[in-house]
Design goal:
It is a single chain. By secondary structure, the protein is an all-alpha fold. Among the domains are: 109 residues, Receptor-associated Protein (Up-down Bundle); 68 residues. Helices cover 81% and strands 0% of the residues. The chain is flat, with a radius of gyration of 26 Å. It is found in: Cell membrane.
Length: 308
């Protein structure tokens, strides 16, 4: 075990030394700096070279665990290569910490948690942004209808929303307005936003705009009726969410209890867990427990998730 750890440390040191001294097939840093700018440090050069290597691998393989649209939806202002590089460096650091604490197995278990946690954070932030867009849609629709009644055109009404609304509605409507200015059809831009935000309600609004454009009529009245439907649907969804609150709270307690008890027992008596990490049977049981825990997590999540 010690030999394996020493080998890993030696490999990491060799990789860092190579990244520091290896020539990069790119424009020198001095030529890319503005006059009077401070040159980058060696650590920044290492990170930059890693980002270039990661970007090349992602483009070569055609696979990315963190797609750009997911990062954009999560509100993370980073390039794909930069984010993946940060996750890889954090994973390696977590492995070294786990190895120092309990050996290779503990290091691998802690290292695996880093990309899983990163993916969970991105998904959580994306869902929060989509939910915020859905919650703001009712007031957004009222602003659009009011602007149309005041004599504004649809693009002008959307521009008003992009200027006055809260995030993320302001960013999404600004994107619709900008795409319309670049020549994309406004309805298609709205439909793309509905798909990206996974908003069925905004899809209804887009369909109403498309039908009104083809058949004519008062768009503000149509949007008012759609707004009433959305309000009733949101009221029903809130009622269902209130009824299912107890089940969702129970699921969180059930999932947190094994972890809390395990951490407390390890803190009180670390020797109790020695057979689990040092024997083959203990490691097998630990792996089975982790698999069952993950299965239970998704099972409970499906049970308490109620869609309206």
């Amino acid at each position: 075990m010690l030999a394996t750890g020493a080998l890993l440390v030696l490999l990491s040191a060799t990789l860092a030394a190579y990244l520091l001294v290896a020539p990069a097939a790119r424009v020198p840093v001095e030529r890319r700096l503005s006059p009077g700018a401070v040159p980058t440090s060696p650590l920044e050069n290492v990170v930059e070279r890693m980002e270039v290597a990661v970007d090349w691998v992602l483009r070569k393989r055609g696979w990315n665990p963190f797609p750009g649209h997911d990062l954009e939806m999560a509100g993370i202002r980073m390039q794909q290569s930069s984010f993946v590089t940060a996750v890889l460096m954090s994973t390696f650091a977590a492995f070294m910490v786990g190895y120092a604490i309990g050996g290779v197995l503990i290091g691998l278990l802690i290292a695996v948690l880093v990309p899983l946690a990163s993916r969970a954070i991105v998904s959580s932030r994306r869902r929060k942004r989509q939910n915020a867009f859905a919650d703001q849609l009712e007031s957004t629709l009222e602003v659009i209808a009011s602007a149309l009644r005041a004599g504004h055109s649809l693009p002008s009404a959307l521009d008003t929303v992009s200027a006055d609304a809260l995030s993320p509605t302001a960013e999404e409507f600004a994107r619709i307005v900008n795409e319309g200015r670049l020549g994309l059809d406004t309805v298609e831009a709205m439909r793309e936003t509905a798909r990206r935000m996974r908003s069925e309600d905004f899809g209804w609004i887009t369909d109403a705009v498309a039908i009104q454009r083809d058949t004519g009529g008062n768009l503000s009245e149509v949007l008012d009726r759609v707004g009433e439907t959305i309000r009733e649907r949101n009221a029903l969804a809130q009622q269902v969410r209130a009824i299912s609150a107890e089940g969702r709270a129970s699921s969180k307690v059930m999932m947190a209890m094994p972890l809390a008890v395990g951490v407390f027992m390890f803190w009180r008596s670390p020797s109790t867990f020695t057979p689990i990490f040092t024997t083959g049977v203990g490691q097998l049981l630990l792996g089975i427990a982790v698999v069952l825990y993950v299965i239970g997590f998704f099972w409970i999540r499906r049970l308490v998730e109620v869609k309206v």
